[in-house]
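Note to self: user wants both folds in one dump. Writing first protein now.
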Amino acid sequence: MAKSKAAKRKRNAQADLPQKVPKAASTVLTPPPDGASREPKNLSTVVPDEDLEITVETLTTLTQYPSLTKSKACKDLRVAVYEFRQACTTGVNNAEGANLTARITGALADKRYLEAKILLAEMRIRGEQPKIGALCRWVRDLDVVSGLSTQPEAREKASLERTPQDLELLGVLDAILRVSTPIDLRSNAVDSTDPIAFQSIWDLRPQTTPLQVYASVLDKSILNEAPKDPAAIRIIETTPGPLRKPPNHHPAILYTTLPNAVPLDPVSPSITYHPHPAVPGL
């Protein structure tokens, strides 16, 4: 009994003493480096894929009923769409006040094909020609004849009825080709009522059997030509798959080698310039 009373008095005495507050650890907040971007790298981190699909379907449906978009219920939607369009860094907005090439690129990015054909006609009237990089970008953006000329049955497919969208894209492609190649100087040009008149493929590869590089990768025989020293090859940059543009399931790994790690032929091959029969300056 006496021990319990003594212990109680000791606890009460300790409670009356000033309590020692633990000192907070001093941490120095380091600001982010200048120019560091805080914007997310992947769209799915901001908006789920399902919400994005619903938004696209909603806007696509409303475009079929223009009278409904003028209603009061769509006021907030119109404001949001306008702000989104102004914030977009691609297309016509980005090419405002730029040259004809940039304006055509922006019109094609926004799928404003009528405006693109008007700008292409202006370029042709002014006697200007696009650079080869712009020409390749425009044809790639249209993507209306990819792989068609390399298929054995391409000639039969060309006579099939085309959709109105394909005909519109082919009309833009025709305007692009008339700007880049105003005159067809080939004697074997074919007259055709079809939007596409197939010509022979411009192939400068030698008639010898090409190197089976892909097959050597599959059977790993290509490793016989690799440097024997593992230190001769190192990774200088690795981009995770989700951070790639566009995102990918696999990372992008960039390697480099030490000087003379990969043996080259001491005799350089001869270089010959071959002008393209239809595209000048290629």
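First done. Writing the second protein, which came from a different request thread.
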Amino acid sequence: MIWRTLTMLLLTLAFAGAAKAQSYTVSSITGGSLGTVVSASTGSSTFRVTASSGAVARQSGSAVRLSTNSANATITIGCSGGNSTACSSSYINVTITALSTNTGRTSSLQNLSVASGTVSLLSTPTAGSTLQFYVNPIARGTTRTILLGFDMAILGNNSTRGTGTASASFTVTAQRVGGGGSSTLSGSATATVIRPLDIVKTADLSFGTVTRPTTGSGSVVVSPAGTVTTSGTGVQRLAATTAQPATFAITGEGGQSVTVSVPSTVTLSSGGNSVTMTTSATGSGSQVLSGAIGSSGTATVSVGGTLPLSSSTAAGTYTGTLTVTTQYN
């Protein structure tokens, strides 16, 4: 009877001790976004996010990051339960693991790294696909943060994966040093990946063959819509020759805003003689490509011009280069 009583007492003490042990919670994971990235035409590109500052630097490839936000992730952990000193006197075992789960134009995260947010790291682990490290105690009922950096690959436009949101997952586990009292939360690093822009000339701007004024000055005008007009005494356009605006086709990510730049003037030359035309365009300035993100979008630019003439303009064939550029906003 005495032995049974002692056994029951020991069991009661054991359960009472376990009830006082603290537990840890990974309560949130925020940030970790590269923002908008234009993928390279071919091949993958890697961006490195610095844990402490969130600064982003391209390590390889030719993809272009359009966003400028800090891209590190913030992990929040807290301690609860236990007696009044259990949380404030115990180190915390933290493990962060990059997973093979990824979507869109990216692959698994590499070179995970950590820095102190508001938590105090007992030691800083070497960068890798899995990090295991200890942090100093956290008072009961409070939370502290860890900053996470990583390498994120963005696949090229030759990838079979679609554009749009790309994400690569990881898990964070916090627990007592001896095990138990653990919590695990999944997070992800993300990017909005869009296809590169391309612009192709589909027609040259041509004024055709015109006669110069017999006196004074005049001009020949080709509108962006293709309407041709002349002015000045004796200025005529020979109907047998072609007059047309220049046209350009732009392709890129659907639904995205772009800026199309057309020069205001272009110099045309014939031997040692030259004349400067002024341009007019439709589809220039800020434009939105057709379609929606995740699909290809298009826009068309049409450029006309006004060519000034005088009675002293030298006869000849005049040519010049009209350069139209476009970029994402």
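Dump finished. Worth passing along: Confidence is low (pLDDT under 50) at residues 1-19.
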